[in-house]
Amino acid sequence: MKRIPLKMKRADLYSIPKYELPEGFKIRFFEIGEEHIWARVETAVDEFTEEAAALVHFGKEFGPFPDEMTRRCLFLENRAGEVIGTTTAWYGILEGEQQVTGRIHWVGVVPEYQGKKLSKPLLAKAMQLLAEYHDSAYLTSQTTSYQAVNMYLNFGFEPYVTNETDIEAWKLLEEVLNRKIL
Fold first, then answer.
1. Structural domain tally of the chain?
2. 26-60 pLDDT, tens per residue?
3. Closest by CA position to 2, among listed 176, 161, 178
4. The dihedral of CA 118, 5, 134, 93: what is its sign?
5. 61 within a domain of the structure (yes/no)
6. Alpha-carbon gap, residue 10 to 157, rounded angstroms
7. How far, in Å, CA of 69 to CA of 169, rounded?
8. Residue 156 is part of which domain span?
9. What CATH code is carried by the domain that includes residue 33?
10. What digits encode the pLDDT tens for the residues 66-125?
């Protein structure tokens, strides 16, 4: 499948879907000094080719805001207390807009735990957290993450279209997901 970046926006943070974690799993906040854990998870989900690159990125994007990370970054733990997923209820300015808004950022569950009904509770918790700080939210993804995009659509995110490439991406996803999007 052609990999095309895309953006999605949710106009409000009301009526966030609720999902319970399966028994034995829990969500907790990031603690200062756990950058290596974030890097391990994001490397496992192929966002980076090696943990060192993930750590460099973490340092640039989140390093200046350690206290914010302890309130906005979530870790998903398995029954043994090992971190197997993460997402961040971050913030930013969506391209073409003027004001800071909430951002669902870096959602990832390690491959051996994917398909076990963990992503939806993790995303729901991040959105509830965003609602404490923001009125709306956005996220970025790509067409190759079509299963995640389908979940985002089901959570009320809508396509954010600003150019012809965006239209191409969403038409491709309509075919792959067999659902009307645009």
1. 1
2. 999 999 999 999 999 999 999 999 999 999 999 99
3. 176
4. positive
5. yes
6. 4
7. 31
8. 5-177
9. 3.40.630.30
10. 999 999 999 999 999 999 999 999 999 999 999 999 999 999 999 999 999 999 999 999
